[in-house]
Amino acid sequence: MENQMQGRRLFSRRLIQSEVDRCVFFFPFMYVSEFFEFQEGRFFFMDVIDSLGKVWTVLTKFHTHEVIGNYVSIDWPQFSNEKGLKPNDEITLIARSLQEGSNGGPQHEFKVLIKRKIRLFGQDIWGEVMV
What we know:
By secondary structure, this protein is mostly beta strands. It has a single domain (about 5-95, about 105-130), classed as DNA-binding pseudobarrel domain (At1g16640 B3 domain, Beta Barrel). It is built from three helices and eight strands. Strands 1, 2, 3, 4, 5, 6, 7 and 8 form an eight-stranded mixed beta sheet that branches. The longest helix is centred in the middle third of the chain and has 7 residues, at about 75-85. The model is unreliable at about 1-5 and about 100-105 (pLDDT under 50).
């Protein structure tokens, strides 16, 4: 059976407590550099599709920090609250290229997957959050 993630471009990491508290998610720019052109301080909206097919528009911003370098923040309070995100949830954004955008650059569509670890019969199991 073919791996469903094979051939797709994705970036993923686990949430920490401060991200859950602030309803914001951070990615080092090197994780997303193939999808976006870095412009410090630039805000833009990004649409992500959840596992139920609902489209969410989230605010994204580029930042520079002298110690940690360039990073991207994704501000998604409504998404975070409705999905009940918790520390250690694994967030994966999967990109699919769309046709060329109106500005001549490539556009991407992102699907967001949320996985949460639960303990079942003494075993840790990761399952997709389907809220």
